[in-house]
Amino acid sequence: MMELPRYHRLRGAYYRLEGSACPSCERRFFPPRPVCPSCKAQGLRTFAFSGRGTLYSFSRVLQPPRGFASMAPYDVGMVRLEEGPLVSAQLADTEGVDLSIGMPVEMVTRKIRDSEEHGYIVYGYKFRPLLRPGRAGGP
Amino acid sequence: MRDVSIIGVGQTAVAEHWDRSIRDLSVEAVAAARQDAGVDRVDVLFVGNMLSGELAGQENLATLVADACGLLPIEAVKIEAACASGGAALRAACLAVGSGAHDYALVLGVEKMTDHLTDGVTSALALAADADYEAAHGISFAALNALLMRRYMHEHRVRHEDFAPFSVNAHRNAARNPRAMYRTPITADDFVGSPLVADPINILDSAGICDGAAALLVAPSSEARRARRPPVRVTASACATDTLGLAERRDPLVWQAVADSARMAYQQAKLKPKDVDFFEVHDAFTIVSVLTLEACGFADRGSALKLAAEGRIALEGDIPIGTMGGLKGRGHPVGASGAYQLVECVLQIRGEAGEAQVKGASIGMAQSVGGSGSVAVTHILQA
To answer: Does residue B133 sit at the A interface (CB-CB below 8 Å)?
Structure first.
């Protein structure tokens, strides 16, 4: 279940991959954090990640939790973003692709779970294999 | 702090208890522990439990247990630290008795999981992960561990089948424990052929869904002679935490909370890993055993599989683990597992582990881990 107010609060992270950056030590975090775990500074600013990275690990989920049955089996992974942090997410467009650790991936916005009781659809980030690494990030 | 001992233990069989409620299981384990101690007095009750609200529709659980056991009006609270709840409950008791606030503290670990279908339990277990950034993305608990296992296999150039000795050992030990759920020995071939849950993790990598309750009565060591059975001293009790989200660690294959709680425990007990006679490890998945053995100093990074392959984790090895089946073989009623580990430690140290007895067991370590290594509670018990 993804409650509507909660979904609304998460829109920056889910749609734009917004995390946070520490004003004093310049470390960057995803998901966003209120306090820098490294230098303990507060008042971290919003930082939008590029969405480009490489696959750190991956798995195919065959026994899904409630709310994901229509998508199973589906692939999930941990992605090392080019700005540093790791992020856990579902993988998209993996059919016919031999996933491997280290392969380049990019963020896409997709439906991330079964439709909710009241009919709304939860969208968020997923990562897909970059088919043409030379063209990462647009023209 | 006063010196603290465990003076009585009790447990139900771990099983799918279709005809028994969380109340029934709790009452049985508590009665068994009190009878074992032969001491009537209880001043406070700490109930270790993770999912009673989600899976049994019951919070305010400690009041229910105190009431059902006829212990009103004593102080009673639930202690929740995901799958480490059972260990955390003993730690609460050690603090209460050690500080002098209470003399006789009852610890219960209980979980009732089997009223629900697998998808409901899978969702419930994911509550230990980050709700917004892991669970909401369909990354199940098994999947988080699968991500770790795949990465471990990649970094250390090992195969999935190399993890088989952990499950084979757990089932072999469980076969000697009449309270265990999975008493059928398995082979490495069974392990390899088991159906996948979250690739590469399969059913035989994973501890099963089940019900159970285990209880311990804790008292100041100075009063422990009043008990019927030989007291077992708690010489270390330590808890540490790490990031809730697995991806937020500097290196997800280094389980820092596990390492920190073990290091604090060794310091308190003035021991080194090699002094430990047996280790009740939190083997919810085979990869957890591996990362834990490495974090606790029993194996160097990347070498825990070798420890298992050489048979050193068996009952007759130099560091027996999961001596009565562990989470994999005995079963993993999540919030109760930490209490089961501690009950088993006490039985080993008292020399009452039956066919599963580790010869000369006098120093035992039990470690309860919650989330994907995000909270760890380590205890060392000694004769």
So the answer is: yes
